[in-house]
Amino acid sequence: MAPAILSRGICLRVKASTRPRPPFASLVQRCNARRESSNSSYSPQGLGPGSARWYPWRVGAGWDSTPVVADGTRYRSRDRLAWILRANRAYASAIDFRSLQTFARGFAGGSRSGTISASQVSRWETGQSRISAEVFARYEEMLGLQPALLSSLAHALLRYSGSRVGATALEKAQVLSEDDVHDRLDILLDLLLSNAHMSGSTWDELSYHLITHPSIFLPRGVWVAMTERLLSEVIIAEGIAWFQRFEALSRIMGHPRGQQAAIAACVALANDPTNQVFMEPLSVLDCTRHRDANGHIKSQLINPTNSQALRGALLATVRKVRDHHFDDSDLTYLFDILVQHVSDESSHLSARPLASEILRMMPAEVTSHRSRALERALRDDRVLSQVLRSGRIAQAHVTAATVNRVCAAAIGSMSGDLPTVKLESVLAALVDEMLHSPISDIRLMAAQTIAATPFRYPVADGLMLELSNRETVASPVLGTAILGALPFVGRAKHRLIVERLALHGRLPTDIANAAVWAYAHMEGRGRTTFWQQALTAHLAASRSTPSRLADQTLSGLIYGLGVENRRDILAPISNDPRYPVAARKAAVWWLGISQHRRASART
Predict the structure, then answer these.
(1) Any bridge partners for residue 139, and if so which?
(2) Considering only CA atoms, which of 255, 249, 80 is closest in space to residue 154?
(3) Where would you tag: which of 53, 143, 287, 602 has the fewest CB atoms within 10 A of its CB?
(4) Which among 415, 397, 323, 398 has a CA at the least distance from the CA of 361?
(5) H/E/C letters for each residue in 96-132?
(6) What's the pLDDT band for 29 if we cut at 50, 70, 90?
(7) Helix (H, G, I), strand (E, B) or coil at 305
(8) What is the DSSP letter of 5?
């Protein structure tokens, strides 16, 4: 029997397989054999100040840890997941399934074996019973939902609300034997190293096996190839495919050997000025305490590559402060940097409230003696002052009318019985977070939670009514928040309204900028006539009134064309001297993404 491998309180035994192997020499088997022959043990290197101990990866470890706070009521991650199940069943297209008894009788089969009672369904849907991955899968099958829609969102919610790096919080009922895990890894790694298509579910399975079997040894070169390819697909993936890849990258960030390669890949991409996507490679560093990740986030806060990189670093800092990745000396130093960003009126509209929220989260002993500097930075700015006081961009009693209008419009258009008080109250909390949280990750999670239920399009229609209000368009903070939610909840028909806002007023404006960036990810595909009109208008604006906002909006148009793979428009831009050098380089970068990689990232 192979020797046990010890690592900081965790003991895993790697045994040789007795099953006949296929002709392809197993990479996993060779790597483990090499490791056993060296008789070496390992432990994670470079952990930050909050990680004196390496926690073993335990399925379900992230359940309900660090609940996300909604206005007025604390809705934990398990409450939100229970709400998703109930909302989908209560408004199912198959009317019979709206009955607990009928739904329970039909639950056996597919991804779930064995019968259940109506009371079990009720416990899942009220958060009284833990929900496994197979339960989410069975709900998807029975209700005709897109595969992995619920489970991928559940992974994201539990990861963001938890603090244990790399933990996979959803239980899987079917546990593979060690031999079966090795066989599956053999197949998955062969796909990876042969540059074959890797679907989102493939990345999910690969990262799950690696994080739940951390004693399996892979050469550094394999980790490098894996993380570089995964990151290259994360930054161009959409929808569920993006969810699955981002969660896979987050898991690898928690692997004792894989984390260094993952961090290095993210750092290299974020430091590359020719790169066009900065949010993901920086914000994903929020899940690791490794000193290299902490150091890079601090570097980007001090000297960001661009405005996108600054926002990505600020997003990572939110969880790093919350989960104590930085020590007191780091926080004291970062305080001055954050005050500078709060004071920078030329920065991106969302950057200043985000920096203010991080300051609010810092321990009092770090900030108490520096209150005068902060007061000067917040002088005469109601939004930033409100964020620092309450963690909201506006007072709850002021925003309640907007939330109530959106929810009333959504509920009024739903067929079937009126929602329960719990369904309605959670929906109101999610809409409130989606529109009024200073943290864009929380806004994104709230929007994606709504999007995973039948409330999706009715809420979007309610948001469209708000955008038709002149006061909303005149309020950059609320208007941009609504536009930021549309890529997740909106319909294809809503593109026409966003097109008008992208060309509205004396350009450039914050609303037009937000509309351009939102347009890139909305359901459907952009009209060629709009792309041409928008390019003409915003190019003229950037030439007549040069500003950071004008450059950001033009970059957003190139980004949208890249996301849609509009090579017919990007190719002429790359050689057109009328466009700024940065825009031409951006077009070249998007044109350089191979069609093979795009096809793999969209599955």
Answers:
(1) none
(2) 80
(3) 53
(4) 323
(5) HHHCHHHHHHCCCECCECCCCCHHHHHHHHCCCCCCC
(6) low
(7) coil
(8) E
Percent of the chain scoring above 70 in pLDDT: 85
Distance CA 410, CA 459 (A): 5
Residues 6 or more apart whose Cβ sits within 8 Å of residue 190: 24, 27
C-alpha Rg value of the chain to the nearest Å: 24
Q: Across the chain, what does the average pLDDT equal?
A: 85
Phi and psi at residue 592, in whole multiples of 5°? -80, -10
| CA terminus-to-terminus distance, the chain | 41
- The closest of 383, 489, 474 to 434, measured between CA atoms, is 489
**Model pTM score:** 0.87
Backbone angles phi, psi at 5, to 5 degrees: -110, 120
Question: Dihedrals φ, ψ of 129, to 5°?
Answer: -135, 140
Structure tokens at 591: 């044109």
Q: What is the pLDDT of residues 470-512, one digit of tens each?
A: 888 888 899 999 999 999 999 999 999 999 999 988 888 999 9
DSSP-assigned beta bridge partners for residue 11: 6
Sequence-separated contacts (24+) of 257-260 with Cβ below 8 Å:
257/42, 257/214, 257/217, 257/218, 257/220, 257/223, 258/210, 258/218, 258/223, 258/226, 258/227, 259/44, 259/288, 259/290, 260/45, 260/46, 260/223, 260/290, 260/292
* Residue among 137, 153, 133 nearest 145 (CA): 137
Q: Is 290 helix (H, G, I), strand (E, B) or coil?
A: strand
Distance CA 504, CA 424 (A): 34
